[in-house]
Amino acid sequence: MDNWFVLLNIVVLVALIGLLIYMQKKHVSFAKRVFTGMGIGIVLGALFQVIYGEGSDVLTSTLDWYDIVGSGYIRFLMLIVVPLVMVSIIRAIINLNETKQLGKMAAWVIGVLISTTLVAATLGVVTSLVFDLNAEQIEAGQEETERGASMQENFESMEEETTPQRIINFIPNNIFLDMTGERSTSVIAVVIFSVLVGIATLGVSRKQPEQAERFTRMVNAVFAIVMRLVTLILRLTPFGVLALMTNMVATTNFAGIVQLGKFVIASYVALIVMVLIHMLIVSGFKLNPITFMKKVFPVLGFAFTSRSSAGAIPLNVTAQKEALGVDDGAANMSASFGATMGQNACAGIYPAMLAVMIAPTVGIDPTSLDFIVQLVLITAISSFGVAGVGGGATFAAIIVLSSMGLPIALAGLLITVEPLIDMGRTAVNVNGSMVSGTVTSKVLGNLDEKKFNNKDAVVENTGI
Question: Which of 157, 304, 356, 439 is the most exposed place for a label (fewest CB within 10 A)?
Answer without folding.
Answer: 157
